[in-house]
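Sanity check

After download, print the first record. It should look like this:
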Amino acid sequence: MSRSLLEKRALQLAVAIAATLPVAAGTWDVLHGVHGAGAWALNHERYLSGLLLAIGLGFWSSIPDIERRTGRFRLLTFVVAVGGLCRLIGVLLGDPLSPPVILALAMELVVTPVICLWQARFALPAIRTAALATFRPQSLS
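Expected structure tokens:
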């Protein structure tokens, strides 16, 4: 197996594993909600959990042809990082810092951006190859 194919498989595996958390957490929260919350809060929680689920599914959908999904990776990473920054602001404003919050912050502000950078670095040769393949010098005749 070539180094490039090995790196592609490692990146695909990392994305598959990392995206399992938002898919599982989003699905769980959609089905179970927040007990004791009012009707609107419960419904809003389900909506936000659906967004979390969609983010994970979006990352999963990029696994095939991962080298050509840089735009999708960047958009999803931006959404995740903004959410993480908002979570961090909540902690700075006094929200409790529990182990699940620490795990979420690590995923949102460290793991996801690192995987995004890895994907972009891995995609560069594929982007260059595609650009060169579409470049056809005009003949001078």
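If your output differs, re-run the checksum step. Summary of this record's structure: The first helix runs from residue 3 to 32.
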